[in-house]
Structure formats: structure tokens, C-alpha cells
What does this fold into?
Amino acid sequence: MSKRVLAVDDSKTMRDMVSFTLKREGFEVIEADDGVAGVEASANGLFDLVISDVNMPRMDGLTMVSKLRENPKFRSTPILILTTEADQTKKAAGKAAGATGWIVKPFDPDQLIDVVRRVCR
Amino acid sequence: MDELEQFKQTFFEECDELLQQLEEVAVTLVPGPNDPEGLDAMFRAVHSIKAGASAFKFERLVHYSHEFENVMDRVRSGELVLAENDPAILVHAGDILQDLVRAAQSGEEAPAGLEDEVLNQLKSMAGSVASDGDESTADTGSGAGDFKISFTPHRSMYESANEPQLLFRALASLGELKTDVDQSKIPELTSMDPVGSYLTWHFELCGAESEDVIREVFEFVEDDCDLEIERIGGAAEVESEEASAAIQSVTASMASGNDAASSFTQQTTSIRVDLDRIDRLVDMVGELVIAQSMALESMHELVDIQHVHQLQALEDLTMRTRQLQEGVMAVRMQPLKAVFSRFPRVVRDLASKLGKSVRLELEGEGTEVDKTIIEELSDPLTHMIRNCMDHGIETPEERAEAGKPEEAQVRLSAEHRNGRILIRVSDDGRGLNLDKVLQKAIDNGVVTEDAELSKEEIEALIFMPGFSTADAISDVSGRGVGMDVVRRNIQKLGGRVTVESQFGKGSTFTLALPLTLAVLDGMLVETAAERYVVPLSTIMETVCPDPKDMRATPDGGTVMKIRGEVIRLIDVCGSLGCSRHGQPEPLRKLVMIVETEFGRRIGLIVDELLGQQQVVIKSLEANFKAIPGVAGTAILGDGRVRLILDVDGLAAMAPTPISNEGFEALEDDSATADETSDEDDTDQSAEQGGMSA
It folds into this structure.
């Protein structure tokens, strides 16, 4: 069975990019366009990986990550956040919220796959 | 594969934006140090294009953008300082990048060798710092070799869902890995914490590329574990010191993490919406405004104390509807930056082509206008800028002789005023030579030799078709088909263009445009009990003419003389084939003087002016059929459909203009009016007076 990924980003280009790259690697990708939609989507079934942007309307990525971590279903699900630049404070804030790791935007498909392989079986 | 095509579409849309950002920065580059933010933006643009291109396997684009990115990375990091010719190379590199993107988009192979020259230039730019580059790799890389790694995860590492096994798998991919697990810290079962972490791993990794790639594997867990990496064969102390410093900085920044998180939500975000959807929304709101004003009109008949609450509610609805309409219109608004941003490039290229030295100043780029107008502005503005560079600006020698600074100045500015947008193109060039303009107009038969024209009227002549004072036709701007086309384009948008000039000091062209095309500012007029809308932008003035100034022509028309100009009068009612149906002639006629796209003036005869009104334009052609003299329809507050008059169409129905001499030759109507009392339009003893619209 293919692995399910929840991709949360308000930018369609970014969602497309993540989605396209991961689908090519055989993942099943479910998309959500902000934190609120991400939390809603998380209620429907299990996920093997969550990739989320940080800056989003309605609910930002960090709040969403903490919310997901409160849910026992997501306690051991790897969650990657997308940060805009190699900014240590944002990465640290992400980790503090419970993120497993981060991907620095912009990224190559290969970089994305590399990082995903590091956190996802 | 349909989905892939869709992603590609998004990618190319994004490329357009990125290429534009890139060019915006590229044209501002100067030899020496540059604005770091701009360089960063340029680097990111190239990088993003490369990232997308590699996702879609556009190999040639990837290869090219990789080299470009390399150079930009070095420039932004300050490693590479731009030399004299480098800015031009980077601008050109941006052009080639655009060509390659276009080729990828069209699916056709770009011409062979297209990028070779620039690639070599880029490579040699990168090469000029090659020695520095080598040093820096030596600093950070530590070189390939064998490493000893000891790794003890903390329980926090498991809490963030990091999985040691996956890290080991990643390590194993770096070289030959030997693993040993230290289980000595595992306590008795009774005292064991089920979520505790008790294991330490020792690895020997042979043939890894560098210590950096190993650290990258542990990137996410650096502060959730004890990690030691030692190069077998020494030189490790410095590295671990650096690592601990890095860890300290991470810990310090974690403390400020909350502040960082709270600032995230303040940043603005945007979404892409299909233009069709917005247009539909604009249309629906237009209907809503009509429905609301119909409701308001019908309610006003019920003005009494019983209905005061309903009336108040309706007033409230009116206000909200207006706000909603403004809000929806605002969605279609875009900053003028979209068009303005191309001009630094245009000016730069033209200046070097013409051998002139020109500085372009932009102002008010943030001013917002309807997207449709933005799209239509590009051509006329480009033409005006070219025209100004070609004809307006003198050569540096000429400027020096005239005592002006050698570098000429062109200003492109925009502002909102009175619900319209004003765009100005001004220069400190030679200005219009009025004598030369007038002489040219006389030569071309645009005006007669004895015509007495004011300064403004002479200036306006440059917008006449076929007019050009340039002695030699250049390939930069016009062969005299220029400014009249500009004017026609602007008038199509419901705007006007004027020029003000001081000979020897410069010219200013001003475009006045409506903010949107979806609603029209109209003047509601009545004739023969029928109401029409006249586009406000065409109306010059409204007068109540003296019958002495009017004449009937042999072809059955009427002309009027106003301030020395003879204009044709058109009876709106008659021209549209309506009859008065027994409606009495008004006591005095009004003549509304309007100007056509080609600058011809005609007078429309109407009975009454009812007031200014904004209307939503509905196409008559789409819903019924085209009618000459009618531009479209609008539904007004009373629920009735009203026709919007097409001034150009009406003018086309009027016979040719009549000269001053021709006018004098016509029989004076008012002299005979008392005796004959015929049914001529001008046969009214009107009070004299004028009013302007």
C-alpha cells in the first residue's frame, strides 16, 4: 500500500511541487490549503508523513503541528515544516512545536526526497 | 499525464513572475557592491526556476540555470564582486534564461548554441574567483575519509517522531558502515521508563565524502542527542568545537522561538484566482447594485412614518452594497508596477542604442488600476517612452550646448485623482517647437493657414493622424503613426491624453484614465421623453447656443459656431430613428459638445441633462444586435434599460466638417426665423447661456 502524505500549504505552486514530486515516488498525497484545513484533513484517516508550510492564513503551520502532536494518532508521525530560508530561529521554533525536521524553500525534488527518506520509512 | 501538464502550467506561470523579478533586479545592477536583498531575490528566482525545471526534467534549462545560480550565489555571498561588464552579462543571462523557459514551455528545442556564449561568460565570472572557491571547500569540507561516530539519542528525539533506524539507513548510503550498539545503560526491567532512551551507537564509516554530509544526516536531531564525529587519523577537535558552538546558537535561538512564531501570522499571503471567476463576481455585484437601486426607488414612493424602519434598513443595504461593489472592484485592481517595471529596461536599451544618457525615475508604481487597463496600457506607454527618448531627449552634446546636464531625466509617475488615474511621462528634453508643429500641420492640411490656434491647440496637433515633426524617420519610434495611435488606445479605455510643453525645457504627457472598465461614468440625458447615457469622458462641455450661431446646411444638417470653430450638430432623437410621438419640442435646446476618438468634435442636441451616474455596461451586441450609434446598454435604478450612446458611431453619421468660410456662406437662420417659423431644429428663441458638464 502506498504511503499517505498530508501536504499543507496555502501556495498552490508549492503544493503542486510537493505533490508532484512525492506522487512520482509512489506516495499518495492529500492536500490542504491552510492549518485549519490540515487539522480537518488529519481527522480522516492515518498519515505516514505531514509536510506543512509555516505562514498560512487562518492557522499557521506551527500551531497546526502542536495540534497534531496532541492527537495520539499523530504522536509518532513524522512532520516536516517548510521554511523560507535557512533561518535557525524558524527551524528551532518548528522543533519546539513538535516538528520532526524541516525543508528549506526553494528545494529541488531530489532534496525533498532526501529529507523525506530521512524521516519516513 | 493530464495532471503533469497542469503542474507545468503552474510552473510556467510562476516562471513569468520570477523572470520579471529577476529582470527588475538585473537592470539595476552596477559594477561593485549591490543591494543584498536584490541579489538574494535574483538568486532565489534562478534557483526556483532550476528546481521546477529539474522536477519536469528540462535538462537544458536545468544545466543553464545551474551555472547561472552558481554565479548568483557567489555574487550574493560577496565572494564575487561585479566587474565593469558583469551587470550587462547578467542582464543578458536573464534574457537567455527567459528564452530557454519559453522553449521549454512551447516544447520546441531552443536554437542550438543559444546559451553557449553566456554560459562561457558565466563560467569565466565564476572562474575568476575559482581560487577563493577552492579554499572555502577546503575550509568546510574536510575532504573524504573515514570517520568514527558515536550517537546517543535523548528521549526528546523520539518525541519529535525522528527514527534512529532511518538515520542509520541514510548513514549507510554515505559509505561503508560498521555498527556497534552499547546496551550497557539499559536498566532492570522494573525500573525501566517505557519511553526512555538507553542506547548508544558507535559507527565506523569508511569513504564518506566529508564530515558535513554526516552532520547533515543528523541535522534534525542535533540538539536531541549526544553526537561525536571523529575523523580517523586526527584533525577532529576543531570540528567538534564548532559543532558545540552551533548547538549553543540553536539553543539560544530556541529560547526566542516563541517571538518568531508570533511574527509569522502577521505576514500577508495571497492566492491565485481565475480571472473568469472574478469577472463573474463583478458581474453579479453589478446586478446586485441594480436590484438594490430598483428596490430603493420603489420604496421611496412609500415615504411615510410607517415605513421608516424599512427605509432605514434599505439605506443600510445601499451602503453595504456600495462597499461590496468597491471591494469586488478592488480584487481586479493591480499595482501599476506590472507595467512600469519593464521601462527601466526599455530606457536602458534605447539610451545605449540612441547614444543618449538618460535616467528614468519611477513614481507611484504602487498605484492600483483595473487589470484590464494595466494590460492595455503597456503598448501606449511604451510608445510614449520611446517617442520621448527618440524625439524629446537631445544628444549629450546638444544638452551640453544648451547648458543642461548631459544626463537627461525621464519621469514616469502615477497617482489617483478624482476617481481617475493620472499617468505622466515627463522629460527635460527639447520640448515641442510650436512653430514647427504648426507649419507641419499646415503642410499636411490638418489645419488651414489662417487658423488661429492657442498654445494648447497647437500642442494637441501632435495627436493628429499622420503627424510627425521628426526630420528623419528612425527605427526607434514613429513614422508619424505614433501619437494618434496612443490617443486612440487611451480613448478606447475611456481616457484622454494631453501634452504640455515648454520649448527647450521639456514636455509632459498626461494620461487620465478611469480606474475600471466595468462601470462607466455617464451623463444621463433626455430627448423626446427617452433617456440615454453619454460616456462622461467624451463630454467636453454643454452649451445653450444662441440661434445666431447655428446654421442649416444644404444637406439637411445643422452646424454651430463656437469660439471660432464650426461643429456639426446631431439630433440624438432623429439619428437613432426615433420620432417625437407628439412630444412637444423643448423650450430651449441643449448642445452637448463631445469629442470622438479621432479628436473630432460634434454637438449632440438633447432636451435635458438629468445628472451624472455610474452605470454597469451590458453589451447590446451579445444580447440583441449591434446598432450604429449605440455603444451598449445599462439598467438604471428605475429598472429600465437605457442605451449608452456611441459618440464615434454618431459622428460617423454626420457629414463632413464645414470650414469657417463655408459657415459664413450659409444663410443665417435666426434672421429668417421670425418670418418663416419653419420646423428647423434651431428655430427656438432660446435664452443665451452656457454651462459646462
